[in-house]
Automatic annotation (TrEMBL):
SUPFAM superfamilies: PLP-binding barrel. Transmembrane segments: none annotated. InterPro entries: Ala_racemase_N (IPR001608), PLP-binding_barrel (IPR029066), PyrdxlP_homeostasis (IPR011078). PANTHER family: PROLINE SYNTHETASE CO-TRANSCRIBED BACTERIAL HOMOLOG PROTEIN, PYRIDOXAL PHOSPHATE HOMEOSTASIS PROTEIN. This is Pyridoxal phosphate homeostasis protein. GO terms for molecular function: pyridoxal phosphate binding. The keyword Cell cycle does not apply. Pyridoxal 5'-phosphate (PLP)-binding protein, which may be involved in intracellular homeostatic regulation of pyridoxal 5'-phosphate (PLP), the active form of vitamin B6. The modification N6-(pyridoxal phosphate)lysine is found at residue 44. CDD domains: PLPDE_III_YBL036c_euk. Keywords: Pyridoxal phosphate. The lineage of its organism: Eukaryota, Metazoa, Ecdysozoa, Arthropoda, Chelicerata.
Length: 269
């Protein structure tokens, strides 16, 4: 049995997160009552044994930040390797992968080859959308991939260089409609299913409503109105370990929880 937070096993921490999600759903205002919430267990840097244990607890959606990376001159195929691992395939037949990080152009083909890729959450430009659509057309006949548009909802700098880089990822809110229209009209191999944001760490640790989440929900309203999407089905991916309950109260349908389930991560140097 793998321990997550201190002496808490993954099975217990996962159960606690699911319970908090249900409690938050019960407290939502009427406008959000029909929105289902998906838990994405962020398994980046974690071994397949932890993923298998979480899967056995009932979790089905797992998020990864890296397709592959190099550390100490060694190549690590994170999502690519995990999704094609024979033991994961055998023991987790219904697993669904979410890609929630930034990808280099040269890695797009490898990302799209992910087994059971459910949603690519971080499409943030027409260039990336076109490259993904072109790759699917050339290399993956008949395959269509669900994507979200990543929105930069906060201009506030972070104390962490890593988080600051992530916070700056995403298209500006005023340009969201243009990217949405481009994906709908020019990228037939991509299916737009929602919007995603990371938000600032300061707002996630604050009290009360999160202005980053308010901004993303406003973007959703504008997109649904302009492009006639069903607001109950068009997704918002927002909320992580520190703020997923607030995100649910503010309309999130997809929360990305990692350290609360698996424990602290070991980041690449």
């Amino acid at each position: 049995m793998i321990r997550a937070m201190g002496d808490i096993p993954i099975s217990l921490s996962a159960t606690q997160v699911l319970s908090k999600i249900k409690q938050a759903c019960d407290k939502r205002k009427e406008a959000f009552k029909n929105i289902n919430v998906r838990l994405v267990a962020v398994s980046k840097t974690k071994p397949k044994s932890a993923i298998i244990e979480a899967y056995n607890c009932g979790l089905r959606y797992f998020g990864e930040n890296y397709v592959s990376y190099t550390i100490n001159s060694c190549s690590v195929n994170e999502l690519s390797e995990k999704s094609h691992d024979p033991e994961v395939i055998e023991k987790c037949p219904d697993i669904k992968w979410h890609f929630i990080g930034r990808v280099q152009k040269k890695q797009i083909n490898k990302l799209l080859a992910t087994r059971n890729l459910s949603i690519w959450e971080t499409v943030d430009s027409q260039v990336v959308a076109d490259l993904a659509n072109g790759s699917l057309e050339r290399n993956f006949a008949g395959k269509k991939v669900s994507v979200m548009v990543q929105v930069n909802t906060s201009d506030e700098p972070s104390k962490s260089a890593v988080m600051q880089s992530q916070n700056k990822a995403g298209i500006e809110p005023e340009n969201v409609n243009n990217l949405v229209e481009h994906i709908i009209s020019k990228c037939p191999h991509l299916e737009l299913v929602g919007l995603m944001t990371i938000g600032s760490i300061n707002h996630s640790l604050g009290e009360g409503l999160n202005p980053d989440f308010e901004r993303l929900e406003k973007c959703k309203q504008e997109v649904c109105r302009k492009f006639d999407f069903d607001a109950d089905k068009f997704e918002l991916s927002m909320g992580m370990s520190s703020d997923f309950e607030t995100a649910i109260l503010m309309g999130s349908s997809n929360v990305r929880v990692g350290s609360t389930i698996f424990g602290q991560r070991e980041y690449k140097k």
